[in-house]
Amino acid sequence: MAERGDQVVGGISINGIGKGFVNQQKEKITALSNINLSIQPGSFTSLIGPSGCGKSTLLRLIAGLIHPDQGELTLDGVPITKPGSDRGFMFQEHTLFPWMNIYENVAFGLRARGIYREKSASVQEFIELVGLKGFEKYYPHQLSGGMCQRASLARALVGHPKVLLLDEPLGALDAFTRMNMQDEILRIWKEHNMTMIMVTHDVDEAVYLSDQIVVMTPRPGRVTKVVDVELSHPRARSSQDFLKYHGEVLELLDYGGKIQEPDFYL
Ligand SMILES: Nc1ncnc2c1ncn2[C@@H]1O[C@H](COP(=O)(O)OP(=O)(O)O)[C@@H](O)[C@H]1O
Ligand SMILES: [Mg+2]
Q: What is the three-class DSSP state of 16?
């Protein structure tokens, strides 16, 4: 549970959300239709589904970057109307400023909010937490993709958000760096008691990390099913239970495959 003092914080309620856009051909697209979700304080939720099913739209609604056409979203019972420092956001591509070094990139949000002086110690703390000690003076182009992603994570964390919103944060990484980063994310989640909401395309990643997996389908974006993953951490990717959840999510996404009867037997 996310606790600040004796308060439990970071619970999100999504009630009857609908969101449409007008595309370049001036046609109306329903990106999300009647989304209802309850996200417990301190839990880890993954949003999974094919491209265009509204995952990023849902994350941007929770961030307060855009507004719903129907329904309401609340954070700890308070309607979400605009972005706030209680929600950290990490995009798929790292969004570090190329002209700032890693330290300045991580410090950016604190400076923008005018709280750098009182909170400056946490810049170094989070740089170290994501394993970038010694790279403070480096510029993004001097670091690998994985290191830039970790710097973006530090930047999202430095303001101590109640909720961390991750939009395919590991999508650009190779499989091994990705698995290492998943462990980093788990460790940070446990240490900081945040509510995590992550968009992913990767079923393995969703089962490895999440308390609940929200499976979505497109046109219009809807929730097909919420799968509760009742496994403790750390999780073994090859265990029977893990593979059972993996198979269930794949089937919900229609990628379960079919066991075909052979045409003849030898
Ligand atoms: N700003 C926008 N303007 C027009 N259409 C948009 C906009 N944002 C998203 N969409 C459309 O809404 C649908 C859902 O998009 P998105 O949330 O990005 O899906 P996902 O992240 O699941 O791939 C898509 O059809 C997309 O083209
Ligand atoms: Mg997206």
A: strand
The pLDDT value recorded for residue 169 is 87
Nearest partner of 48 among 264, 249, 259, judged by Cα: 249
* Nearest-ligand number for the alpha carbon of 57: 1
Which residues, in sequence order, are bridge partners of residue 209?
none
Residue 259 structure tokens: 């066991």
Ligand 1 mean position to 41 CA, how many Å?
Answer: 27
Neighbours of 222 (CB within 10 A): 17
Cβ–Cβ contacts within 10 Å for residue 181, how many?
19
Show pLDDT as tens, one digit a residue, over the chain (266 residues). Answer: 445 555 568 999 999 999 999 999 999 999 999 999 999 999 999 999 999 999 999 999 999 999 999 999 999 999 999 999 899 999 887 789 999 999 999 999 899 889 999 989 999 999 998 889 999 999 999 999 889 988 999 999 898 899 999 999 888 778 888 898 899 899 989 988 899 999 998 999 999 999 999 999 998 999 999 999 999 999 999 999 999 999 999 999 988 777 667 777 76
25, with CB counted inside 10 A (0-12, 13-18, 19+), is exposed
The answer, yes or no, to whether any atom of ligand 1 lies below 6 A from the CB of 53, is: yes
The protein residue with its alpha carbon nearest to ligand 1, atom 16, reads: 54
d(CA 206, CA 200): 7
Distance between CA atoms of 36 and 236, rounded to whole angstroms? 31
**SS3 category, 57:** helix
- The arrangement of strands across the sheet holding 163-167 comes to 87-90, 163-167, 195-200, 44-48, 212-217, 222-228
Centre of ligand 2 from the C-alpha of residue 199, in Å: 7
- CA–CA distance, 16 with 38 (Å, rounded to integer): 11
